[in-house]
Amino acid sequence: MAGRYVQKRVVQDVYQLRQALKQRNIKVVEDTQDDFITYSMIYYRGYQERFGITRDVMRTETSLRLTKYTAELGDTLKEASTKAKD
Q1: Is the pTM for the entire model greater than 0.70?
Q2: 83 inside domain
Q3: Between vectors from CA 81 to CA 79 and to CA 78, what angle results, nearest 5°?
């Protein structure tokens, strides 16, 4: 159940981010992947920019977000157990 909760939160976040980009007419297209860097092309108002992010940064961000989701799950479970006791 915990895994499904985290999966649901990831899907929700990705959906919200895509919607925010779409509202601002920003298009992000994956470009190339070198040894340690993933590049994407960003298109906005006729401009284009190549953006690169390292694997270490992606790992760190993934770890932080998973920690956030797990903490949210813990808070939800605490609230549910408190209500069940009452």
Answers
A1: yes
A2: no
A3: 40
